[in-house]
Recover the amino acids of this structure.
């Protein structure tokens, strides 16, 4: 996924 | 990873620890809503579908596993454990799941970042998490004697959401293309739901009296 993506949050 | 995000994740973790502590050591789930716990188990199951598909970091993977395992084990304890389940306040925990589950699913089908199974489930989990605390807040309001651990549990959960908002503000200014209306609006709604509780929690803490919510 590109930078600036919120899917890395829990 | 910024400080707000880390602090948010830690208060989230702390809320789970407080709840497990209550269940494990006191063998009580008094004042805890099974409805809310079941909704959280669904939230994590839906959101962490990518667990074995996309690897982000060891931290990310471990935290996802912890939240999945803890949410399902809490539900198991409240439903199956022979001592814990007797302390569950079933009569007052009457919120209907379906009134939140169905609208969240419909909303996720309509508003998502991409119309794929995983993205729809991700959006569904975000919407569901925003309102999953409602049965818990209703139960607390109906509980005469809120014990400290139940109060702290909800406080830490609310703190986690508030810290995530600070995290988004920070990320917005430091990362390119960081505009995420779905999680932002859902996150703000979720945090606002705690506003009333926060007010009474902080007041009781300042005045050093037992937490009590007005009926």
């Amino acid at each position: 996924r590109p930078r600036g993506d919120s899917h890395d949050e829990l | 990873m910024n400080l707000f995000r880390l602090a948010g994740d830690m208060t989230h973790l702390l809320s789970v620890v407080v709840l497990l502590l209550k269940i494990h050591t006191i063998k009580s789930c008094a004042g805890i809503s099974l409805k809310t716990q079941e909704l959280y188990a669904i939230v994590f199951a839906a959101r962490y579908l990518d667990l074995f598909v996309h690897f982000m970091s060891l931290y990310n993977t471990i935290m996802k596993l912890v939240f999945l395992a803890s949410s399902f084990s809490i539900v198991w304890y409240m439903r199956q454990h022979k001592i814990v389940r007797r302390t569950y306040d079933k009569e007052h925990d009457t919120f209907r799941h379906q009134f939140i589950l169905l609208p969240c699913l419909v909303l996720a089908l309509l508003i998502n970042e991409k119309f794929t199974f995983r993205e729809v489930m991700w959006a569904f989990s975000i919407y569901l998490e925003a309102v999953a605390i409602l049965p818990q807040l209703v139960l607390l309001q109906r509980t005469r004697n809120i014990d400290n651990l139940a109060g702290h549990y909800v406080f830490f959960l609310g703190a986690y959401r508030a810290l995530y908002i600070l995290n988004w503000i920070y990320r917005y200014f430091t990362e390119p293309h960081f505009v995420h209306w779905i999680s932002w609006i859902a996150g703000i709604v979720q945090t606002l739901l705690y506003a009333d509780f926060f007010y009474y929690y902080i007041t009781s803490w300042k005045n050093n009296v037992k937490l009590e919510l007005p009926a």
Observations:
- The mean pLDDT of chain A is 76.
- Chain A touches chain B at residues 1-4, 6-10 (CB under 8 Å).
- The two ends of chain A are 15 Å apart (CA to CA).
- Chain A has no helices and no strands.
